[in-house]
Amino acid sequence: MSLNRSEKEAVISEVTSLAAKAQTLVIAEYRGITVASMDKLRVTARSNGVSLSVLKNTLARRAVAGSPFEVAVDQMTGPLVYGFSEDAVAAAKVVADFAKTNDKLVIRAGVYGGKVLDVNGVKQLASIPTKEVLLSQLCGLLKSPISRTAVVLGALATKKGEGAAEPAAEAAAA
Predict the structure, then answer these.
(1) Per-residue pLDDT at 171 exceeds 80
(2) CA-CA distance, 36 to 104, in Å (whole number)?
(3) Do 1 and 61 contact (CB within 8 A), yes or no?
(4) Closest CA to 29 of 99, 83, 94, 107
(5) pTM of the full structure
(6) What angle do the packed helices 35-47 and 90-101 form, to 10 degrees?
(7) pLDDT digit string (tens) for 95-148?
(8) Which of 33-37, 124-128, 149-153 has the highest mean pLDDT?
């Protein structure tokens, strides 16, 4: 079923708004995936804040024209699913994790920061920890020197306290 002109314009405007908000685009070929598997992928994507769409490639090319994702236009051929995410790693993580368990989903390319990523680039992007994990690691690094200083000062106080207890015991004995 083909779309009429107004429906095509609606799709283009929707994808253009997604591209305007997104930091990352992941493009994957879905040839041979069952409907049930695709539904699982969509549910996972939705729960991680990834907008996953199967689009006509000509409409996708028009939608990303003028955006940082325009650099991937030459990769937009064949049956593709497009994953846009506002989080820098969410789209790559969702698609790469699903591709590990389903060999029919083939990662074609990705775009981050206006640069095209190949398959290995998308997988490397997917291996970056989430924002929450990175923030907790940063907090741990910031807390570490303070904790160590507190431990050292506590040990010094205990050592000085032991030395002070002995002269007090001698004075009481005398």
Answers:
(1) no
(2) 13
(3) no
(4) 107
(5) 0.73
(6) 150
(7) 999 999 888 889 999 999 888 888 898 888 888 887 788 888 888 888 888 888
(8) 33-37
Residue with tokens 């879905």: 30
Side chain identity at residue 22, one-letter code: A
The upper half-sphere exposure of residue 5, i.e. CA atoms within 13 Å in the direction of its Cβ, equals 0
Side-chain half-sphere CA neighbours of 107 within 13 A: 28
How far, in Å, CA of 169 to CA of 139, rounded? 45
Q: Is 52 helix (H, G, I), strand (E, B) or coil?
A: strand
Of 44, 43, 53, the C-alpha closest to 15 is 53
Q: What is the DSSP letter of 111?
A: E
Q: Report the distance separating Cα 56 and Cα 10, nearest Å.
A: 13
96-101 long-range Cβ contacts below 8 angstroms, 24+ apart: 96/122, 96/123, 96/126, 97/44, 97/126, 98/40, 98/41, 98/44, 99/28
Measured CA to CA, the distance from residue 116 to residue 118 in angstroms comes to: 7
H or E segment and range at residue 34: none
The token duo for 81 is: 């699913």
User: What secondary structure letter does DSSP report for 129?
Assistant: P
